[in-house]
Structures are given as structure tokens and as C-alpha cells.
Amino acid sequence: MEQEEKSYVIGLDMGGTNSVFGIVDQRGTIKAQTAIKTTGYPDFADYVKASVEALQPIIEAVGGIANIKGMGIGAPNGNFYTGNIEHAANLIWKGIVPIGKMFEDALGIPVRVTNDANAAALGEMTYGVARGMKNFIMITLGTGVGSGIVVDGNVVYGSDGFAGELGHATVDRSPEARHCGCERHGCLETYCSATGVARTARELLVKYADEPSLLRNTNPDEITSYDVFLAAEKGDKIALEIFEFTGRMLGEACANFALFSSPEAFVFFGGLTKAGEYIMKPIRETYDKNILNIYKGKAKLLCSSLNGSEAAVLGASALGWS
Q1: For the CA atoms of 236, 237, 238, 239, what is the dihedral angle to 10 degrees?
Q2: Rounded Cα gap, residues 269 and 109, in angstroms
Q3: Residue 213 phi/psi, 5° resolution?
Q4: Closest Cα partner for 199 from 235, 244, 242, 149?
């Protein structure tokens, strides 16, 4: 039977910095992976060409394109309904990008598209800590802050495919609120993404000019969230304060997000979760302090159990079977 012959799907997790491709079998095992830089191709047609070239060896490794049933893509502002990337703040391509059609034409297989955070939520629900949950909110902490909202076992897409842009909830309305790539000010992702953490580091190093810090050994413009983590591990006061500040922001935001879907859990995914208790402790404490009484003690605050970009790759690949 044809369906039996087509044993694999391709999953693409497109991040603001890197694009990770995986070939996935029917059991949800990633058989092979490859990656390219998302940022290296100002012309989107060149990005598709480079992607197809990178995919060729791993497609051949599973017996060729005849064995691939379809492709699922998780991308910033990926629209499930249209197959387009639409006005993504954290990508170099602006406006409407017909990613689904361009990959269909290039590979000759059906392609489905969704938001990168929705893909991560699908992966976590199928293979991770949210397995068996029907109501949870996935928060992705990467170049930006994304979210995938699952209600009664279904990802929420809304009327136009764009429900759940929680990274753009306004958390700061002061005149000093940070400018966001979406052209607004004070969005959650300007504070709680990996880039937001680096921004906080630069601000606090100026604010506490007399406080010694390991972070002063790095050019301020080159500080990363990982540098902050390494400094925190050594007890650096400014680094610890950066995670406290970030965790408080996230905890308050999640206490508000709980109001509209009463989730069983919040699942945090992405590089920042490697900071562990440095960030999770202030998230939990602030969430508990701010949550409405009827929701107290109900939602778990969890870190993804899937490694690296597996959640998003697996989640995106799930679309490839449909």
C-alpha cells in the first residue's frame, strides 16, 4: 500500500537564528537531522534552495523522496490556514512569505505550516511532559517569546490562525518601555527572551556601575543569556538579579494568561530553561503571588522534557502526516 511505503515525514523548526530539519518515522523517532542558518539568506528563494540542498543527504538516507509522505513547518507567524509566514517580527523576510507553497514546489510533497510555538506544543503534547494533558500553555523562550495554547486537546488558532501571541502582551507601559520588533513597546519578549535577558544584563551593568561582576569581562554588546547563566552559577550578584527580574516578569504574565484558559500546566521550552531554578524559582514565586485565588495551586509550572529543538521538530512533523 502507498501509505505504508511513505514511512517518514519532514519536520522543520524555523527559529529566528537557526532552522533545524528532522526526518521522523511513524513512531515519532527522529531518524536524521540537519540545520542551516535562518539569517544567512536575504532572498527567501535562496533559503529554500539551501534548505533543499541540506535535506538531500538525509532524504537519501531514508530511501529518497518517494518514502516521504509530507512536511510540517513550525515558523514564526506561520499561519496554519494560509501556509504563509505573515509579518514575522524576528525574521529577516518581511511581509507575506509563501513558505508552504515554495517548499511544496521544491520538494514535490504536501507541506503544512504552523506557528513555531504551536509546533512545540504539539510535540510536547505528543511526546513530552504534556503527554495526556488537554489544557496547557507552552511558552517558548528563544530569540523571541512564543506561545502555543492547547484547550480541550486542540491547539487554539483563532479566526485567522494567529491566536496566542502571548510574547506580545504588554508588560511595561512606562515611558522607558523597550521597543519591540513588532513596532510596539513593552512587549513580554523584549524582557523575557534570550535577547531580552542580554538587554537586561547591559542595563543592570550600567545601573550597578560599582558592583563587580564577571559579566564585565565580556563586551556588553556580545553578552548572551548563556554568559549570564555561567556567571549566575558562580554566584554573580548581577547575573542572579537578571534571572530574578526575568522570572518575575514571566510569573506575573503567566498569572494573567491563566485567566482565559485555566491550564493544567505551563510548559517552558527553549535555551533559557537551561538556567533551571535560577529562573524557575522566581517564576513560581511570582505566579503564586499574583494568581487569582480560584486558580491557586492548580497549574504546574514545568520545563520541557524534550531536548534541544526536538519538541518543535516533532510537533512540526506531526503536521506532515495530515
Answers
A1: 50
A2: 30
A3: -155, 140
A4: 242
Sorted by sequence, the CB contacts under 8 Å of residue 118 that are 6+ apart come out as 74, 78, 80, 138, 148, 155, 157, 164, 315
- How far is the C-alpha of 119 from the C-alpha of 130, rounded, in Å? 13
Nearest to 9, CA basis, from 27, 25, 31? 25
Contact 135, 262 (CB under 8 A): yes
User: How many whole angstroms separate alpha carbon 45 and alpha carbon 310?
Assistant: 26
Q: How far apart are CA 150 and CA 261, in angstroms?
A: 9
In three state form, how does the secondary structure of 136-171 look? EEEEEECCCEEEEEEECCEECCCCCCCCCCHHHCEC
Both ends of the chain: CA-CA distance in Å? 17
Which grid cell is 294? Answer: 480560584
pTM: 0.85
Strand order in the sheet with 154-155: 154-155, 145-151, 136-141, 265-269, 300-303
pLDDT digits (tens), the chain, 322 positions? 344 557 999 999 998 889 999 999 988 899 999 999 999 999 999 999 999 999 999 999 999 999 999 999 999 889 999 999 999 877 999 999 999 999 999 999 999 999 888 988 988 988 889 999 999 999 999 888 999 999 999 999 999 999 999 999 999 999 999 999 888 999 999 999 999 999 999 999 999 999 999 999 999 999 999 999 999 999 999 999 999 999 999 999 999 999 999 999 999 998 899 999 999 999 999 999 999 999 999 999 999 988 766 888 998 998 898 7
